[in-house]
Amino acid sequence: MTSKDGSHSLLAQLEAVLAIHGARAERWPQEMRARLSAFVEEDRAAARLLAEARALDRLLNAAPDPSPPHGLEARILAAAFQPRQRPVPVRTVRAMWPEATLLAASLFIGIVIGLSGTAMPALQDVALISGFLEADGLPDREAL
Amino acid sequence: VLAGAKGHGNGRAGGAESDAVLVGRCARGDRLAYAALVNRHLPRLFALSRRMLGNEASAEDAAQEALLRLWTHAGSYDPAKALLTTWLTRIATNVCLDRLRKRQEEQWDDSYDQPLPPDQEKTLEDRQLAERVEAALRRLPDRQRMALVLCHYENLSMAEAAQAMDISADAVESLLGRARRGLRALLASEWRTLLADNAAD
Lengths: 144, 201
Fold this sequence. Notes:
The complex is a heterodimer.
Chain A: H1 4-21, H2 30-42, H3 44-62, H4 72-80, H5 97-116, H6 119-130
Helix pairs in contact in A: 1-3, 2-3
Chain B: H1 2-5, H2 19-27, H3 31-53, H4 56-72, H5 84-102, H6 124-139, H7 142-153, H8 158-165, H9 169-186, H10 188-200
């Protein structure tokens, strides 16, 4: 037998469980299932609460089960197979390694060349030919 | 392919190819595989959308949008992470919630009040009861209705519903509790009548 306080507590737990999970015991939290099922067997108020929850579940099941209209499946296939709806190729990180490696290598080489200053004379030659630099390496004021 | 793939779930029964295999083929542009998946999953996605959005046209659009994403994004599905059913439910849930957000002003159209097709014909009393239940479901706030649709009608676990709605399991519990309490109040005379009938039997 359950004490009066314990019974009130279990009744409150049952009410909360029924409100969330409905009357099907298999959907109740596993750790409470056995205790609450036994309680329902021995307590009239608990049995009443369960009966009410079952009635509500039956009402929910009375709602019609919508089925797709004829032709919808064909319309979906037609829409999917239009030229603009193509599967998007998914590129994993692994698949992008070659490009990523190449980019990283280019960046590294660029930094090395920049720091070593080997590119400067070539750039100065280009600037000289273009008339942006005087032979002394100073900017050509007229060209600017 | 279509005949072999008929039915819900993962379609492994009766020699049908599993969802994971079909999605893999789909990602490589296999139209037959895609058609089999549409045939297998459309009924459930349409029912979910219809219950959420409340009218035929919106539900068709939502189910179509979810299934088109399967075609265009099949390559991003990872069978190790979720069943295809869960993945599609999540997509359809998001599509429905997006549509509800964007179209708050949308009215539930009259198609819901049309008679059921002959093969589902019930007695007048049963049909009227079904309509009252539908009306009560429509009066629930969107997210409460979504939680109820996923857990009661789609039979998703709390964790799966939480994943589909992109919220915590505690939040789903809270929504479900409010939804059922709301329905209990809205349908009080109906469930009391059912109880009285059961007692009389």
